[in-house]
Design a protein that fits this description.
Blueprint (H helix, E strand, L loop, with lengths): L1 H21 L14 H13 L4 E6 L8 H11 L5 E6 H9 L7 H8 L13 E5 L1 H5 L1 H16 L6 E4 L1 H35 L2 H24 L11 H27 L4 H25 L7 H31 L4 H4 L11 H16 L1 H18 L18 H12 L4 E10 L6 H15 L7 E4 L13 H16 L1 H6 L3 E4 L2 E10 L7 H17 L6 E7 H35 L2 H25 L5 H30 L4 H28 L7 H30 L3 H6 L6
Antiparallel strand pairs: 1-3, 1-4, 2-3, 5-8, 5-9, 6-8, 7-8
Helix pairs in contact: 1-9, 3-7, 4-5, 7-8, 8-9, 8-10, 8-24, 9-10, 9-12, 10-11, 10-12, 10-24, 11-12, 11-21, 11-23, 14-24, 15-22, 15-25, 21-22, 21-23, 22-23, 22-25, 23-24, 23-25, 24-25
């Protein structure tokens, strides 16, 4: 009946899985922290000045005299699908600036646009496309249309183009998401299966474990789809993570099944395996779900979504494990286990293996104080590095150094100018007595002052497109200002339409766009603070009232996101630690035992993150997801080891014998699960999206350190005086 129910739900699971895999949403805005003042300022800025999601396109030979510049701009905007609402080009703006009413000399106009739309050589230029709402619905299609149009209209092949901007970033992430789902996830699953088969040495049991894991993964993806969630690049890790975690639990249940076959016979084995394994398996999955679920406290949407859906997926996988796997084993038992009931499923028992087990147990028992002290000392030394951890969400830390997108950005910043904007909005209240011309004068003067500051690559404002303003005090300059003022006032709407001036209730707002290198070593927090410290005193010293400044754009948001990443890491980890510690206390029925058992589980987190602090490796989005997840996963093996230790201790065995018994019963399974999870996740280090690469290698490192903690640190603690605490506790694991 259970298998019939599984068969009936399978079409729904397949439908939901396919729907989830086809969905994709890598909107750049979702990576920004929600509900903060900085985000609200940025949204207000976009509402007033218009969308600023751009795509910058250039190529070798893209100069002011290249006719393909205007051909591409017109073809894509005028005859395209509507993905781009307008385009800016160097030649087009030069024509506007040198024509009436501005009448700016050509040389001056080129100088004003250098670093924005014209390169340092005064010739290289680009096309800047502004994405429309239609284009924002499918950024990959928008970029593909751009590439196709460039080839059909201008003879420019995709490899000839240099692309940059938020639209390109998001499209690149979307494409990488699909590649991961199509290639890396499949490879990960195959590797996990073969490693499982190699360790278990039973094809049929491996196949049952795989079927359980595949169904659980499909169920998790179906929940994502039917609840209205979408895939993004972080969420692509959901399926391989649920897959390998279910394999881990299934391997442990298979270990209990193997023991039940030996002790109770083939027919009773599924029922007895479930009876003996439910407590450690449920508690292990619970702690993993808590660890992953703690990520739901993140203010960054992809991380929060990953935490919620991965926790739900782990919880559902337990139900599938306890219902599906015993049902299959009841109908189609693993008869090969009966042939040699004494044989270990995971690796053959031999005199050499038994001798090695005895030697390891004896070594840990004999040197337990030294091992415990060494592990604690290593944690202290590594823990110092935690104080030096730093986070980042910069572009160069999202993509591989040799990826095309980084190469394109590097070329454009060398040949055109900086690409990351910080927006300074100067607000003139009704209380400000300055005329429109006087406001233009002030903004022009402030813009020239900003260009002298360190790390400011270029600036742009309404003054960039205004005629040269007479600044002298002579009678002639005064007369020129009097004549120019009404002409500028007359063209006020032109500056509003161009997105450099906006009208707000009780205020006129002027925008100064400051550009900074995307790939440089600029400290965005320090840069923003320098601008604030430079501008605010100037505004306070003005002879008029009602002038203020706000600072928004990508740079303040990146700075806020970096701080939020670190806060999320700390908050989610401490939440996971607190809840998991409480679970351990309840499971072991002893506060002392529960807290002591957390030491080996903290070991991998402190070691790996401490090493990152010491070596200067930055925390980014992928890193944040690992700490809480690894803590939950590390507790899995702790539960299983303590289960066998407690059962042996309750049978009256000495601690050394109880430790040896635990080794004999689950050390091989613990090694197998760590190896399977590591091999399955290590594949994702081949991704070109660095957060996924970091997630992969950090999870592998954490799993390796966790295995050491559970097979060396924990037994050393149990062998010493602290082990008496565990013997006195009446664990529910027994």
């Amino acid at each position: 009946m259970i298998l019939a129910l599984v068969a009936l739900t399978l079409p729904v699971i397949v439908y939901g899985t396919v729907g989830a895999l086809r969905s994709n949403s890598n909107d750049p805005r979702q990576w920004l922290p929600r509900g903060f003042h900085e985000t609200e300022l940025y949204q207000e800025f976009q509402d007033q000045f218009g969308r600023d999601e751009i795509t910058v396109v250039t190529w070798n030979g893209c100069t002011l005299t290249d006719p393909r510049v205007e051909q591409l701009a017109q073809a894509l905007v005028d005859r395209g699908s509507g993905a781009y609402q307008r385009a800016l080009t160097g030649p087009r703006l030069l024509r506007q600036m040198t024509a009436p009413p501005s009448d700016i000399p050509l040389t001056d106009a080129i100088g004003r646009l250098q670093g924005i739309l014209i390169g340092p050589d005064g010739l290289t230029t680009c096309v800047v496309f502004i994405l429309s709402k239609t284009g924002a619905e499918n950024r990959v299609a928008a970029v593909e249309e751009l590439l196709a149009t460039a080839e059909s209209e201008c003879g420019l092949k995709p490899g000839d183009l240099y692309l940059g901007g938020p639209t390109v970033d998001a499209a690149t992430i979307d494409i990488e998401s699909q590649r991961m789902l199509a290639e890396l996830t499949l490879v990960s699953g195959l590797i996990a299966f073969f490693v499982t088969w190699w360790r278990i040495r039973s094809f049929w049991l491996s196949a049952i474990i795989m079927a359980t894991s595949i169904y659980s993964t499909g169920l998790a993806l179906s929940v994502l789809y039917f609840s209205g969630g979408n895939m993004n690049l972080i969420m692509t890790m959901l399926s391989p993570l649920i897959f390998v975690l279910t394999i881990s639990s299934a391997v442990h249940l298979g270990n209990y099944y193997r023991d039940a076959v030996e002790e109770d016979g083939l027919d009773a084995a599924p029922r007895m395996a479930l009876r003996r394994g439910w407590a450690p398996c449920v508690l292990a999955s619970l702690t993993t779900a808590v660890g992953l679920g703690s990520l739901a406290t993140s203010m960054i949407v992809p991380i929060r979504g990953f935490g919620i859906y991965s926790a739900v997926g782990v919880a559902l996988s337990v139900g599938v494990l306890f219902v599906f796997m015993p049902a299959v084993l009841t109908l189609w038992p693993v008869r090969s286990l009966v042939k040699n009931a004494a044989q270990n499923v995971y690796e053959p028992t031999s005199a050499a293996a038994q001798n090695g087990l005895d030697k390891m147990t004896a070594f840990i028992a004999r040197h337990h104080l030294a091992i415990t002290a060494a592990c604690l000392a290593l944690m202290v030394v590594a823990g110092v590095g935690l104080a030096w951890l730093k986070s980042t969400v910069k572009l160069q830390h999202r993509f591989a150094e040799d990826s095309k997108i980084i190469g394109d950005y590097r070329w454009m910043e060398e040949n055109l100018g900086p690409l990351v904007p910080l927006e300074i909005v100067i607000g003139f209240d009704d209380a400000c007595s300055w005329t429109f011309f006087e406001r233009m004068e002030f903004v022009s003067w402030l813009e020239t002052q900003l260009e002298t500051l360190p790390d400011v690559g270029a600036t742009m404002s309404a003054a960039t497109f205004a005629p040269a303003l007479p600044l002298g005090a002579s009678t002639r300059d005064t007369a020129r200002r009097s004549a120019m003022a009404p002409r500028l006032e007359k063209n006020r709407q032109h500056f509003i339409d161009a997105g450099f001036i906006a009208e707000a209730p009780g205020q006129e707002r002027w925008r100064i766009s400051v550009r900074v290198n995307a790939l440089g070593d600029v400290d965005y927090a320090h840069f923003t603070e320098n601008l604030r410290n430079f501008i605010d005193p100037i505004l306070k010293a003005l002879p008029v009232d009602g002038v203020d400044a706000t600072y928004t754009g990508v740079i303040p948001l990146i700075y806020k996101a970096q701080r939020q990443l670190f806060d999320d890491l700390v908050h989610s980890f401490f939440l996971a630690f607190s809840v998991i510690a409480l679970v351990m206390i309840v499971a072991l029925r002893s506060p002392a035992s529960g807290m002591l058992s957390m030491a080996p589980n903290l070991f991998p987190i402190v070691i790996v993150f401490g090493f990152m602090g010491w070596s200067g490796v930055l925390i980014e989005i992928g890193s944040v997801m690992t700490a809480s997840a690894a803590l939950g996963i590390a507790v899995d093996d702790t539960f299983h080891f303590l289960t066998w230790f407690s059962r042996a201790a309750n049978q009256g065995k000495p601690r050394r014998e109880a430790i040896r018994f635990a080794y004999q019963r689950c050390a091989s399974a613990m090694t197998a699960t760590s190896l399977i999870c590591s091999c399955g996740l290590a594949v994702f280090a081949l991704s070109t999206f660095m957060p996924i690469v970091h997630f992969a290698w950090m999870m592998v490192s954490l799993l390796a350190a966790a295995l050491f903690g559970d097979l060396v640190f924990l037994p050393a603690m149990l062998s010493g005086p602290l082990g008496k605490v565990f013997r006195r506790s009446r664990s529910i694991l027994t």
